Amino acid sequence: MRVTLYPTAESLEQAFLAGGTAVVFDVLRATSTIVTALAHGCRGVVTVVDPAEAQEVAARLAGGNIPVLLAGERGGEKIPGFPHGNSPLEFRPEVVGGRMLVLTTSNGTRALNLAAGRAGTVLVGSLLNARAVAREACRLGRDVILACAGTQGEFSLEDALGAGMVVLEMMKMADPGWLYCPTPGASGLDLSDFAVAALHLALAYKDNPRRAFDHSLHGRKLFSMGLAADLDWCASLNTCEVVPVVGEGKEIIPGCPVIVRS
Amino acid sequence: MRVTLYPTAESLEQAFLAGGTAVVFDVLRATSTIVTALAHGCRGVVTVVDPAEAQEVAARLAGGNIPVLLAGERGGEKIPGFPHGNSPLEFRPEVVGGRMLVLTTSNGTRALNLAAGRAGTVLVGSLLNARAVAREACRLGRDVILACAGTQGEFSLEDALGAGMVVLEMMKMADPGWLYCPTPGASGLDLSDFAVAALHLALAYKDNPRRAFDHSLHGRKLFSMGLAADLDWCASLNTCEVVPVVGEGKEIIPGCPVIVRS
């Protein structure tokens, strides 16, 4: 089982994902928000790249009597005129339960929509659900692409960490004795060089994932914007069993993937 | 002091290096070979992207009564018709002493020549001389670009490890107490997310750098080609004080950088 990693949404354009399982990470904060919303009873998340299109999609759903929330950010800030931003803490059960969420974010939705057109199965990963995602990827048994959104075209530490946590959990499942003798090749998983590097990030931060956000450019930016509570939430490793999957054949809006609980 | 990392020669094309110090890594094996040759008395290394051009450059040097060795590889194999390949073990003092070396390799020479046109100072890094390079980068005091060659356009574990070893040594120099309280931001160095990830590779492999080559695609390829002795040599961490620098204003051949001992 081959496990490869792409560090940015841009690099995904060259990825060959056909037939495999892709896992998309935008740990701060889009994919953590999607996982949280679905865990709190959201019916489904429609990810849209463009804000104007997101407004159209939300209006169309509302017109069809589907309860909907419109949410999005650019540069970490809520988009003007949007009722919701991209904080996972906004999507409490009483807010999001039974509703569709239409979401547009700087990096995450782009990576999700790129992956959705290219892979057999697309899962949504974060620190919250890393173990659950690893279990599902092992169950599916196909090659795995870890698709990190990155930040403005650059590698981001937190997305690679999320991907690394999934690798770490997959390795524990493939060979439970592995942690006492960490040799990537010995687990039956064939890790790309980038996946090995991500695994080492997971090993370095597994006892304190929150610390990685202090070492990351985007984590420090969100902290400086007063979003420390979001960071704490997004660092809650393996606290959630939800594995969001991009729906196949369930598109409500052509061209916009709908993410639901698997 | 800002420290950023570029994972492949291709990504370097977007780098803005003006005025800074670039350190180029192609740990398996071009930059390890350059460091070894210069440590063994080589007069200078001319790096050339194209094999035919390398033959021309070598002929021109020989015509000017400059003793010269022609060396190069593609896909890990010696180029047909070339007297030398890209193994550091070929360049013993009695072979390379007092001679110029003209070298063309798959990834390393491309990264070197890209960096040479873009940065104030370009150093050549490897595991062999990581500490010496870190000392020189700290002495120069300018922003640092860690320019990894990568393998065929992909991230390679060994180049990121080499870069990480330089980060680790720079952090020890910036704050000798740092290792007991590893917080990248506390050292006075401003590390990019990728530089932080490389630092964690260095921490993971510092007691056994050779093991990283077993976890790397290119390392395993060279091993399967019978080049285990090269791998052992290239893993000799901090055994060499030579800091190769791309010569400024010393070009023998227009357009071809000449690398000398600093």
Automatic annotation (TrEMBL), chains A, B:
Chain's gene name: comB
Essential cofactor(s): Mg(2+)
SUPFAM superfamilies with a match to the protein in the record: ComB-like
Top-level class of the enzyme under EC nomenclature: hydrolase
Molecular function as annotated in GO: 2-phosphosulfolactate phosphatase activity; magnesium ion binding; sulfopyruvate decarboxylase activity
Enzyme Commission number(s) of this protein: 3.1.3.71
HAMAP family assigned: ComB
Family per record: Belongs to the ComB family.
UniProt name for this protein: Probable 2-phosphosulfolactate phosphatase
